[in-house]
Amino acid sequence: MSPYVSYAVIIFILCSLVYAQVYRASSTTKRINLSSSNEIRNLLDPPTPLAEQLTARATSNARLMRAFSIHSTFVHGDIDTHTTFTKAAVELISRHRLPWTLFADIASNVVDAHLHRLSSVAFDTFISRITLHVVIVGLLQLEPSFYKIDPDDLDVVAGNINRLWTMSKTTTEIPSHMLAEVNVRLHRWLPTYSNPIEFVIPVYETLWRVIAVTVALNHNRSDVRAVFAAFLSQPDSRRYHYIPDGDPSVEVVMQEVLRLYPPTRRISRTYTASDFNLKYLPSFLAQCMTRTITQVADIEALQRDSVWGVDVNDYDPMRHLPQRCGEAQRRTLLAFGAGKLTCVAKTWAPHAAAVIVATILDRVGDGDKTEFEVVAGGGIGGRSGWDGWRIQRVGRGEEIVG
Ligand code: HEM
């Protein structure tokens, strides 16, 4: 090779390296927000192999692995983990294992066990306590002794999961004792699971917030209370879908809660990409010229799209009845994701949440007819933001200790 050619090659490599560094420094990570139905569906249901989709999800969920030490399909890109985990999750909620009447009995026993000693408690503490307890007993398949789990232990687990989730977004320095406090209790309650939090999180973490919002929005609505009362006496699919004359069905109430307050507000995918054709570059150079892109599907924004009309931000279950909800509206409803990674519990979870809501409404907040009342606070909360909201015994104000 002539010296001129060698110089040219060296200069080309040096320039490329300098350019690559500048390119990376200016654009190593990029975050793109998507809020239209087409963009979001393209992101969640792309024509790419399952393994690639799993990797894109796992990469964007890496923070959950750090915060919760989980190794489930949410944080791992391999297909075997996905198959095993989703199969186990489907089995857990199968109707043969957990018929609705049994699930309603569990909810009923749990709610009564907690109300029995209660005088007054923060609303979010009560709902997360109940939900976690129902999930634990449901997963355990009806061990009567588990109706006696100490509420303080449930509060530690629920509170720490909540705090760890929030911290996973804001810091990498998470104190290890918080997860240890959760795991020691979960292992005691779910001894057959090697890492029980892997199952507790997807089942419990979304469910409790759906239940909280549904109770908060409906505790003082007599039409909704009546349909939930009828549903509680027969908590099967027929009653769930049944549309009473002029009143909302249980199904449309749950759909509207999930539309306005989706527990998974955003779903992300992270992958590497480049603006250049890297085929002919040496791999070390190609690597420098790629960057990480996170695309974020803004489910909450899509579900509040203007196709729902001017009152899009109002809570109105009746908007889901067939005469008001066409294809354009339905296409915006993505609380359970879309495509190959759609939630395996998209049918089960709203029904299960409704059973727990019906049980709570049966005991709480109906004027003179119930012993307990809901004290409403400010706005509707999520993981936090329930200031002022309480559940209390009618005419009392302090929690009974001991
Ligand atoms: C209202 C409650 C729930 C909501 C809103 C919800 C939401 C979601 C969403 C949005 C996804 C897709 C995530 C993605 O694309 O990255 C998902 C996946 C999943 N969910 Fe749920 N979920 C709920 C309850 C549950 C329950 C109770 C279970 C337990 C059986 C569960 C198990 C799963 C599993 C295993 C996946 C992964 C599916 C796959 O990778 O193929 N979810 N969920």
From TrEMBL:
GO terms for molecular function: heme binding; iron ion binding; monooxygenase activity; oxidoreductase activity, acting on paired donors, with incorporation or reduction of molecular oxygen. Residues 1-20 form the signal peptide. This is Cytochrome P450. It comes from Wolfiporia cocos (strain MD-104) (Brown rot fungus). It comes from the Eukaryota. Keywords: Signal. SUPFAM superfamilies: Cytochrome P450. InterPro entries: Cyt_P450_sf (IPR036396).
